Amino acid sequence: MDSRIQFYLVTFMVTLATVLSPTVAKLTPNYYDRICPKALPIIKLAVKQAIYREPRIGASLLRLHFHDCFVNGCDGSVLLDDTPTFRAAVTKACTRDVVSCADILAIAARDSVAILGGNQYWYQVLLGRRDARTASWDAANANLPPPFFNFSQLITNFNSHGLNLKDLVVLSGGHTIGLARCTTFRDRIFNDTNIDATFAANLQKTCPRIGGDNSLAPFDSTPKKVDTAYYKALLYKKGLLHSDQELFKGDGSQSDRLVLKYSKDSYAFAKDFGVSMIKMGNLKPLTGKKGEIRCNCRKVNNS
């Protein structure tokens, strides 16, 4: 992640974060309706303004929520940092401090998708998470699927989180927005056989065998818009990452059928994407008296 995107993300999250604990132990879509009705509109406005300043922020917020949930559950631990370098004023919109960093991530990911894709991509987020007091680099390395995974490895990884094949295919559709670094797709464009030759040759111009590690390429032809172009690219062997193209082999498998379905039906993709995002957002959340509500999303309280 480049420094400009990192700056926007940190500023955005720290500005929105608050500090008091929720007491309800069950996630609910109307969690903040009574205790802080201004929370969701304020987050939506902040996301919209952030995307206006830097379009890539939407993809980054979506990835952050995914990474957060896959590493020890949706608890905001992905944001912890022992040496924070940015400061911002904490939002005082609520009469008392109640909004967790983990919930902000879940809401911001949803709003990013809806802003970049339209109202059909809006879904109702379940809320009431608390934030972790610890983070684990080892857990991140063990739980996040790398770009070189094959299909069976992807299935195993998602199953370990209680997610199935359909969740894998539809959540991979999050690559409908954003860019990837050369290091994540270099091996594919030089060594994979299940790739369009012209597509690979064009990418090799900016991502050579040696050097250009930070060169960027879009996941699909419309990297600033949530749509079905990602799935259409897979049909023509133009998936950017090895793990992307593993979803479509042209062998008539269930994964193939889902890719074909989503490539043709944006409403089906939007509906199923929301269902899988909610399912992912329910991975081992901290509730009740577990964890805390961080005032600075990059470090635990009293640290």
Automatic annotation (TrEMBL):
Residues 26-301 form the Plant heme peroxidase family profile domain. CDD domains: secretory_peroxidase. It comes from Vicia faba. The record marks 63 as: Transition state stabilizer. It is found in: Secreted. Residues 1-25 form the signal peptide. Transmembrane segments: none annotated. Removal of H(2)O(2), oxidation of toxic reductants, biosynthesis and degradation of lignin, suberization, auxin catabolism, response to environmental stresses such as wounding, pathogen attack and oxidative stress. These functions might be dependent on each isozyme/isoform in each plant tissue. Keywords: Calcium, Disulfide bond, Glycoprotein, Heme, Hydrogen peroxide, Iron, Metal-binding, Oxidoreductase, Peroxidase, Secreted, Signal. GO terms for biological process: hydrogen peroxide catabolic process; response to oxidative stress. This is Peroxidase.
